[in-house]
Amino acid sequence: MKLGIRHRTRYRYRRPVTVQPHRLLAVPRCGAELRLDEFILDAGPDTAIAWSDDVFGNRIATIDFTGDRREIAIDASMVVELDAPAWPLFAIAVEAHRYPFPYDEDDRADLGALAGPASGEADSVAAFARGFVAAEPTDTLALLKDLNAGMLPRVAYRPREEEGTQSPAETLALGSGSCRDIAALFIACARGLGFGARAVSGYLHDPDQAAGGQGSTHAWAEVFLPGAGWIAFDPTHGRVGDAHLIPVAVARENRQIMPLTGRYAGSADDLLGMDVDVTVTAMAGTG
């Protein structure tokens, strides 16, 4: 399936301000099931764009603005081909079929902070995670699917305009959260059970929505299983696998992979507003 994606962000200021460099994450992470056919980035006149990769291999655009501005607009458009199956099969190594299992020495070293519970993680999160382990040993993938499906019965989805991510304990206590909050809770639970897990940000294409280019930025998780590699878990929608998902960036925590970050020199009330518009559209002739 070929998808056209457009991600537009506009900041408006009360008076001309000095805009400091902005960091943009928008380039999809390609692989066997996702290919990038076209990418165009327009940040307006009198700007300079420098490209680099971070420690996770995410492609970063750093945008420099010349002169004071009352408005900035950053427009990323791209075309991708997504061939991920809706019902994927995972070639999990035999030794990892049953939980618990140990990662080998190299995998454990390379996963590092992505595996194991975070220091000071709340007891409520650990208890919630352990509640999904019906027996030991148990089927590894079934456990992770149960954990993925078990988020929404406990935590209602709630869009949040506020920046940042709730702590997993806070999300549990409130019983609600955004996609990034729910993903963070899933990741904390998976790590608490001994799995290597990481945060993912990108775009969502939902073919169940009416035609017209509905789409959004989205946050989900990936868990590393020997043999299968990184498997996508989207607890906000109860889905497993990469169908409908266009990953842009991965990291240890959501805060490391916000789509656009940057500052300006001025007072807080100089910012009049920020508008974000994302469309993800199936292109003609594709399924």
Automatic annotation (TrEMBL):
Residue limits of the Transglutaminase-like domain?
Answer: 171-237
Entry's InterPro entries?
Bac_transglu_N, Papain-like_cys_pep_sf, Transglutaminase-like
- Name of this chain's protein: Transglutaminase domain protein
